[in-house]
Amino acid sequence: MLKELDISDFKDAKEGLSKIKEWQDSQKTEQEKQIEQLNELKINQETLTDENSVLKAQISAMKAGVNADYVTDVVTLAKTMVSDDVDMEAAISKVVEKYPHFAQVEVEKEEMPKPKFSTGQHNKQTTTEAEAWAAAFK
């Protein structure tokens, strides 16, 4: 296909395409360039707004007592419940109410008795029969 266009190799084709693009950019009016820049800024702003709302929702979920491992799951479920009447915080509380295993549960640790350590020999001395009778009548 390159031979049909009188282009000797792929590098020349790339250079030609870049020159065409530069020429097209130079032919654009200032207004068209500003419109393109405005569109890019709108897209960036939408992206930042979405990220901001997700982060706020995650903070709300953490404040509601959601376990850190389940924050994104709770936010995803809560997004489906958000409407004009229900805000994100209310939706998160509904999700936690419906699925209580997402909430952090403090596990109370049972106090184990502390081990007792002794020093010395652990050999039991055998008592004689006479010592046993004497200990019994004391």
Gist of the model:
By secondary structure, the protein is mostly helical.
Secondary structural class: mainly alpha
- The percent range for helix content is 55-70%
> What assembly state would you assign to the polypeptide chains in this entry?
single chain
| Radius of gyration computed on alpha carbons | 38 Å
Number of discrete helical segments: 5
Q: How would a textbook summarize the main sheet?
A: none
Low-confidence stretches: none
Determine the mean pLDDT.
Answer: 83
Question: Strand percentage, roughly?
Answer: under 5%
- Report the count of strand segments: 0
Distance between the termini: 117 Å
List the helices and strands in order.
Answer: HHHHH
Rough outline: elongated
Structural overview:
By secondary structure, the chain is mostly helical. Helices cover 58% and strands 0% of the residues. Helix 2 crosses helix 3 and helix 3 packs across helix 4. It starts with 9 loop residues before the first helix and ends with a helix.
